Amino acid sequence: MNDETMGQEDAAQDAEACAEALESLDRISLDEIAFDDSGVDVQDEPETEAQSDDQDAGDVEPAEDEADHEDAESEAGNQPESDTGEETVLLDSLPAEDSLTRELPGLGSAPAVDETIAMGDIPLPSVPSAHEAEVRHRKMSPKRRNLMVAGIVAVALVAGGAGYAAWNGYQQEQAAAVAANAHTMMSVQIGVHAAGLDCSTGSKIPVQVSGQDSDGSSVSETLYVDEHGRGIKLLPGDYTLSIAASPIAADGTIYTVPTTKTQVTVKSDEQDLSAQATFKLKVPSADTVTDDQIDAAAKYAEEGGASSAATAKVLQQAATARRDAAVNAVSAQKAQAARDADARHKATDLYQLDIPVEWYGKVETWQNGSTLCIYLAGDSDTPIVTLVAVREGESFTPDEGDTVLGAANLGNGYTVYASGPVYPYVVPQTINGRTQDPVSTYPMDTAIELVELTTGNRYTYSQIKNVLVGKDGKADAATKLETDYLAQILLPSIKAQD
After folding, report:
1. Torsion from C-alpha of 392, 394, 400, 404, nearest 10 degrees
2. Quick check: 424 and 455 in contact, CB under 8 A?
């Protein structure tokens, strides 16, 4: 226990003792401790004269004097210590046998006991009866009585002062704790979402902090958090948070920086602010990342986001390499798409068109004048659709077994007709053996591919066979599937030749 705690406990004990003493005094009537000296002097004079006249009668008066002396000694023992001259005279006037250090009566040869004990060890006086109070009042001199009351008042003031000092000290300690707390850096956590980011191998996320702390000082600084949003330390206050730049992941990933700003209030240590401040950093297409984004991320990584400037440089190089590789890949894809588009583009002397993307690589073509046939790759005997240009006013008749699947007007006096087998109907019927005069028979894998090509993969062979065609052999629903698909992807690309 330290000195401060012991001092507070002593003060509390002194206050309690003072309260008990005051309660004892309250039970004595005011008349008994009145400061009017006239009544006391009148009653004391006869006794004084009697003592001077009857000094020879030693058998009675010594006993009374001894009793008075013991009462006075008892009362004096309850007086607070004082440096006044009055106290010194009273103590010097005591007989030798009544000295403060003497053999206690009734103990025979018991060793002498030193009664000069500390003030704090003296028990508080018990409450006297009315008769005892009257006797003591008559026998006590005004000066002694005034000293006793003054002592009690002094004790009360000392105890009260100590109690006040203890309470005031407690209040000051609390105020000091609050003041110290206001000047203590608080760790706070925010919410961040950055897919694939590991700050132990990449750089941390730079957070721009601005606002005012509890001292009223303006704050504007950049702090760094990991992928869990930890790392910010601030004094209590009100702040605005935003993401300053992208971190750099170990693989060179650069993130899109959110433009949102969030206001927060820091109150305590280990405060979780993720409910008020959450930032989502998305991963853009690597080929769209700019040099400015990479440079900004590298700058903040070097200033505090990475473990060292060398590490920040390595991360910058990784980001640049990742972006460049993505740009090259996109360029290669575009070049290949251009080649594919060129390969898909077909032209006759009257019109031109593009083979549908879904068909590319799965079909081939042959051309004869203004007639263009698109057939299953590797099987020229399995045409999918045949295109024929017909002058306006002339009729068109498809080949045996084919159906007109659509037409495109070129606007130059010609119309291009598309015709071919209705595979969504023909194939299932042929497999089932229900067609009396089938165009051909097909292996199952070929049948499946023909159905998928002519419907744009919208339906499977099983769906065509079991649902659209069924057992009734009607071809209307199956035919509509193919004509609708061709009308959407092939016919719109047929244009007049320039």
Report:
1. 30
2. yes
